[in-house]
Amino acid sequence: MSECQVPQALFLAGNAMLYSPGMNALQVLLSFLFPLLGYLFGSLPISIWITRFVKGVDVRDAGSGHATTTNTIRQAGFGWGALVLILDIAKGFVPTYLALKLVEQNGILLYAVPLTSALAVAGHCWPLFAQFRGGMGLAAFGGALLAVHWFAFCIGLGLLLVLVLVIHHSARASVLAGILIAPLFWLFHLRGAEMWIALAGGLVIAFRFLIDWNRKYRELWLDREKTAR
Hints:
2 strands; mainly alpha
């Protein structure tokens, strides 16, 4: 079985159980602690730390008021923004990848993987270490999908870009992408771990972006709000 087939095999309906009599206490404990680890890892406020280090400012004081890559670009430049993007993707990738490896080794229960990824996204949005005022979760969500398979990541990114181009509003496009990504994976026969991660993480993304549903943008890609004339 190839590496990309392992997560899907693990999440076949016949094996998707919450508890098995063969599970020991350590496996059950890890299955509850690993999602917590995902949240803590997602809570690392990378963009806030970097802008404070580079410019001595809080990234949330500009643009949309969120700790995002675009706000980092605005305050610290493209290079630092690119670094923030990579590290924010890693916040979703690392805990999801480790959870998948533990499932392969029968170290944790199956439900812990999508829960870990969803809580990593939630940590990015509502970080414990930054007064629960963080980013929008897209980079961490992308990282979680990338941990399963690059193709799932590409489909998710493509869906978001198409919706942004059609709707011309990034927040509303992100809400719809969060809702539609799991059904889209089903249609593409991506019905393993990536579909459950898409379902759990997509719901977090949709909920997060609802707060910006009525935001009016002047520069869509930089997430700036229109100013009154």
